[in-house]
């Protein structure tokens, strides 16, 4: 290969250009990227010795950071967040939203807004929780089954108790024969 | 007008028609397959370079896609390489954030170049030294019908190839680095070796990387699997666009998408005969 291997001098393009111009590399041996590079040169020359910039790094802050910092200082966040879930707002996002809403309405000072927002948020969460509980109770299939199991066990006990009261002298074997399967006497023996 | 006169010259096609894989000794020795191809292809290659975005790579992604793939997250401030400062948007509580507008512009340039190299039947090699993403990169490179290197880099694979492989070796025409670091401290040796061997490079450079030797650097997060998957898919699609166009212009049947490297091997075998 004819090219220079000194990667610290010039760029890959200038080195190949020099070879082509000087005739050390024939036009038909030109690497296939050469024309592409010539047509679409990179934004900055890929030189080894390109100096580093000393641009200052901007600090990213938002207006709502003040109240967010206050929230996090006074209430330690203990929320579990799914990073893949983009639909759901986190608690602190909800807080900031409510806070901004209240503030745009005016009429209250900062501290009062902060407190009412916290109250509102707690209320919302309470409501959400009770709704969830209602949803759970309303009967997805597995919980339904559990319910019936429970009630049947309860029924068994009740039936057994009735039998105890009606026929107090019945033997355990007899109770089994009748198909209930639970004898309160033997159950609480020890 | 000028083009017309050129086309009329009988030997012009021969003069300008580059051999398909000029560094490949087998093709040069055989010589014959070039006659099969229409002579037009080198003219086409010249012509499409005048087009700013011939393969329409600008519509492959939006800045929102980059954001959703977490491309904007850099490392912490302490590990910043000063050469990356122009690409940053700022620092959020000590964590550096990339300017996605700049990232998008650089990424579009890189995709365009990748598509053009693929159109010119170049060999493209994907690099990645992050064990978490290695399997993904290998798989995507295979799907693109190209090559990948995700393991320890033995020195001299490029610079001493003819001895190492015991044969005259054709080096890749484009290297795509999905991360440019070996570990947190040292740069991948292949970055330097590509520059030595005059192979252009595309590299995803995070805030702790050195972009100087990378021909087409793309500032962005190089650690998150989501981001790496996005880059892989974009480069795969750009490469496919280049290849599809080439086969279309040559009047060849389209390649099966998602074909493995086996197909490439068989393709070069066909060319040899």
TrEMBL record, chain A:
Entry GO terms, CC: mitochondrion; ribosome
Superkingdom in the source lineage: Eukaryota
UniProt-listed InterPro entries: mS23_dom, mS23_dom_met, Ribosomal_mS23_met
Biased composition (Basic and acidic residues): 127-136
One MF term in the entry's GO annotations: structural constituent of ribosome
UniProt keyword annotations, A-Z: Mitochondrion, Ribonucleoprotein, Ribosomal protein
PANTHER family: MITOCHONDRIAL RIBOSOMAL PROTEIN S23, SMALL RIBOSOMAL SUBUNIT PROTEIN MS23
Name of the protein this chain belongs to: Small ribosomal subunit protein mS23
Source species: Drosophila albomicans
Gene name of this polypeptide: LOC117565838
Automatic annotation (TrEMBL), chain B:
Compartments (UniProt record): Mitochondrion
Keywords, ordered alphabetically: Mitochondrion, Ribonucleoprotein, Ribosomal protein
Stretch list, region Disordered: 253-273
Entry's Gene Ontology BP terms: translation
Pfam families, per database record: Ribosomal_S2
Superkingdom field: Eukaryota
First-listed, main subcellular location of the protein, grouped into a coarse class: mitochondrion
InterPro entries per record: Ribosomal_uS2, Ribosomal_uS2_bac/mit/plastid, Ribosomal_uS2_flav_dom_sf
GO CC entries: mitochondrial inner membrane; mitochondrial small ribosomal subunit
Alphabetized GO MF terms: structural constituent of ribosome
Transmembrane regions: none
Biased composition (Basic residues): 264-273
Biological role: Required for mitoribosome formation and stability, and mitochondrial translation.
Family that this chain belongs to: Belongs to the universal ribosomal protein uS2 family.
Protein name in the entry: Small ribosomal subunit protein uS2m
Organism: Drosophila albomicans
Gene that encodes the chain: LOC117564794
């Amino acid at each position: 290969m004819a090219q220079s291997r000194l990667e610290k001098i010039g760029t890959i393009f200038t080195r190949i250009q020099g070879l082509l111009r000087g005739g050390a590399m024939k036009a038909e041996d030109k690497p296939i990227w050469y024309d592409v590079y010539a047509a679409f040169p990179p934004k900055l020359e890929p030189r080894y010795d390109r100096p580093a910039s000393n641009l200052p790094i901007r600090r990213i802050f938002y207006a709502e950071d003040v109240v967010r910092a206050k929230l996090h200082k006074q209430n330690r966040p203990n929320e579990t967040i799914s990073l893949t879930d983009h639909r759901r707002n986190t608690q602190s996002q909800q807080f900031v939203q409510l806070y901004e809403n209240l503030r745009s309405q005016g009429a209250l000072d900062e501290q009062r807004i902060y407190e009412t927002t916290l109250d509102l948020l707690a209320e919302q969460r309470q409501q959400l929780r009770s709704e969830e509980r209602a949803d759970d109770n309303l009967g997805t299939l597995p919980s339904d089954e559990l319910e019936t199991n429970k009630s049947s066990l309860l029924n068994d006990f009740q039936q057994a108790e009735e039998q105890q009261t009606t026929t107090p002298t019945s033997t355990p074997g007899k109770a089994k024969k009748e198909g209930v399967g639970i004898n309160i006497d033997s159950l609480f023996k020890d | 007008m000028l083009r017309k006169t050129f086309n009329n010259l009988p030997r012009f096609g021969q003069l300008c028609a580059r051999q398909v894989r000029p560094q490949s000794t087998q093709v040069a020795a055989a010589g014959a397959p070039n006659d099969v191809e229409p002579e037009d292809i080198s003219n086409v290659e010249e012509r499409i370079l005048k087009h700013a975005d011939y393969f329409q790579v600008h519509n492959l992604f939006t800045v929102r896609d980059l954001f959703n793939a977490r491309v904007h997250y850099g490392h912490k401030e302490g590990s910043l390489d000063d050469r990356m400062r122009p690409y940053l948007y700022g620092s959020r509580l000590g964590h550096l954030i990339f300017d996605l507008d700049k990232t998008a512009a650089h990424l579009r340039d890189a995709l365009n170049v990748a598509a053009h190299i693929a159109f010119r039947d170049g060999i493209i090699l994907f690099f990645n030294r992050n064990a978490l993403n290695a399997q993904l990169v290998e798989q995507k490179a295979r799907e693109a019908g190209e090559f990948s290197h995700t393991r320890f880099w033995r020195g001299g694979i490029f610079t001493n190839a003819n001895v190492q492989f015991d044969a005259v070796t054709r080096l890749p025409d484009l290297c795509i680095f999905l991360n440019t670091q070996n570990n947190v401290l040292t740069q991948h040796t292949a970055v330097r070796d590509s520059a030595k061997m005059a192979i252009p490079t595309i590299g995803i450079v995070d805030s702790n990387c050195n972009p100087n030797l990378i021909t087409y650097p793309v500032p962005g997060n190089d650690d998150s699997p989501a981001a790496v998957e996005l880059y892989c898919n974009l480069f795969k699609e750009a490469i496919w666009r280049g290849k599809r166009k080439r086969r279309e212009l040559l009047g060849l049947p389209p390649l099966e998408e998602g074909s493995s490297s086996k197909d490439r091997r068989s393709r070069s075998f066909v060319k040899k005969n």
